[in-house]
């Protein structure tokens, strides 16, 4: 793990890092209390398609988990997003379409991203000033497409917030199989008028989750209209299961 930027502002320390894994770089952001000592819960934050680790809601969630709960939080760029992009001068929606193409054609993408998250947890556990304790996951839309299989595969993750996704798409069979193996508590968020994922497919995915503790929160509005109160609910749910 190589830290390339270190900033403290408004009670939160933000560090930009790179991890080298299998010949490629995993770029990420880490948020911790400025004077962090000892063990603390860690929340992995997965961003949506066309976003990045620096998406406003990702940064805001990471900072609030530090300020309100004293947790550590980390986000990494997804495939063909953020600092992983090799194309320059692309249109703003290019990562969205590039991801859709990769989702359809690259069957190694999901397992590669799981490996990237595992390498991130391993690297943070090796940093003496971070002290990783219990681990949670938060990710919507693309953050669920790639995050749900991560939660299923990574035994260190003990609670998850997922959503804005249905049982559909190129990897729906994989996602259905992985969903059935998830046993940790899950908060699932949906938008009632989601234009990307039909309501019945969202219900199918929620029903496929194997956890005995799963909760569905639904709000009116389109795919990107998740209200602030659901970020507050996410914080409470993570705190309930990750502790102090």
Question: How would you describe this structure to a colleague?
Answer:
With 244 residues, the protein is of the alpha/beta class. It has a single domain, classed as Rossmann fold. 36% of the residues lie in helices and 27% in strands. It is built from 8 helices and 9 strands. The protein has a 9-stranded mixed β-sheet with strand order 1-2-3-5-4-6-7-8-9, with helices on both faces. β8, α7 and β9 form a beta-alpha-beta unit. α3 crosses α5 and α5 crosses α6.
**What is the helix content?**
25-40%
| CATH-defined architecture | 3-Layer(aba) Sandwich
Determine the strand fraction and express it as a percent band.
25-35%
Overall SS class: alpha/beta
CATH homologous superfamily classification: Alpha/Beta hydrolase fold, catalytic domain
Tell me the domain tally: 1
CATH topology: Rossmann fold
Main sheet attributes: strand count, strand direction, barrel closure: 9 strands, mixed
What overall geometry do the principal axes of the alpha carbons give? globular
The radius of gyration computed from the alpha-carbon positions, rounded to a whole number of angstroms, is 17 Å
Q: How many strand units?
A: 9
